[in-house]
Amino acid sequence: MLIPPTLIAKKPKIAVIGLGYVGLPVALHFAEHLSVIGFDRSEERVEALKTGIDPARELDALAFKNRNVLFTSSPEVLKEAQVYIVTVPTPVNSSKVPDLTFLKKACVTIASVLKQGDYIIFESTVYPGCTEEECIPLVEQLSGLKMGEDFKAGYSPERINPGDKNHSLSNTVKIVSGCDETALEEIARLYELIIKAGVHRAPSIKIAEAAKIVENVQRDLNISLMNELSVIFDKMSINTLDVLDAAGTKWNFMKYFPGLVGGHCIGVDPYYLTYKAQQLGYNSKVIAAGRSVNDEMPHYISKKVVQHVIRNVENVSQARVLVLGATFKENVSDIRNSKVAVLVRDLLDYSLEVDFVDAHASTKEVKDEYGLDITDKISGTYDAVILAVAHDIYTNFSTEYLNSITRTGALFADLKGVYRGKVSGMKYWSL
Length: 431
Fold this sequence. Notes:
CATH superfamily of the largest domain: NAD(P)-binding Rossmann-like Domain
Radius of gyration: 24 Å
Shape: elongated
Largest sheet: 8 strands, mixed
CATH class of the largest domain: Alpha Beta
Oligomer: single chain
Strand content: 5-15%
Strand order of the largest sheet: 3-2-1-4-5-6-7-8
Number of domains: 2
């Protein structure tokens, strides 16, 4: 059945709720075609965006140019919109249980301004069923409106990859779903305005939610296998990266690498699925095991460094360690769920002196989030240097420079294998 494109024909005003890594690109892309309200509760963020500054430093000033967008922290302005796109964070709490606080607050805000004929589209990552079991009932209860009869809803999972300039919002296929056929088609046509790569129409909201979770569960499990292999091969005095180079010569070998798994997606999303599975009476085995392996890696690395220090430093209480990088991945400022912070805390718990540097991370954010101090600069000499995050600025040090900042017998722990075969004069170790 061909459904007329009535939503786009009305040139609806779009409201994007949450202007972080996901919401800001969505708002700016839609603002090339339609009028957009960019809403965020952080007045500081909103003021920065009004001047064309992205606090995350992902987008430059050109991305804001000639965009029909109003940035605001006032919920009252949202009444002007006909489409609400929710892009708020969905983290886990300290017990690894989904934290829907931001999502539910967004639902409350939307319910206060929702009108007949409006659309709500959720992009925040959730477990399958969350949109229809948690979000929509809350909106219906507070607004007095019914989905399907009074308003339409859908789910379109975000696929933003911070720091990735090749896979952008517009050139990455977008999954879309709706509460009925009309909603699905209208939402698909709306996103087709900004997604050059096209959209994939999922059969249901639950399937779209599950697809997002599976994308990251798969990567998490593959990396966890590499991390476990790294631990095993280390006991055999075999370099894991050399093994992967050899194995990678086969045509069907999928090349993943060991490392710290943090961030707002891979390190979080699997817990949403295992939580829902547990609610349904099933305790995950494979997914939970992969998460356990990856969560253990910072402790494994800190233990290796401390063992080296104990064996090679006469006065352990005066041992100095340099940690390069604080963010969850290279060349971004995002520190959410950073496993480097766990590693640094471990080293501090062993009473080591730790210099913690990062060329991209905000000193204030690191202090507020983890209670850790970013060191102003590299100074003196160290008994161990850990390349935790391969920011470009840290991947081109000369052997002479590394030797100049390390003491005799120092360890260079190269978690990404960037300096494999390139350093001398110190003990080299990689995952």
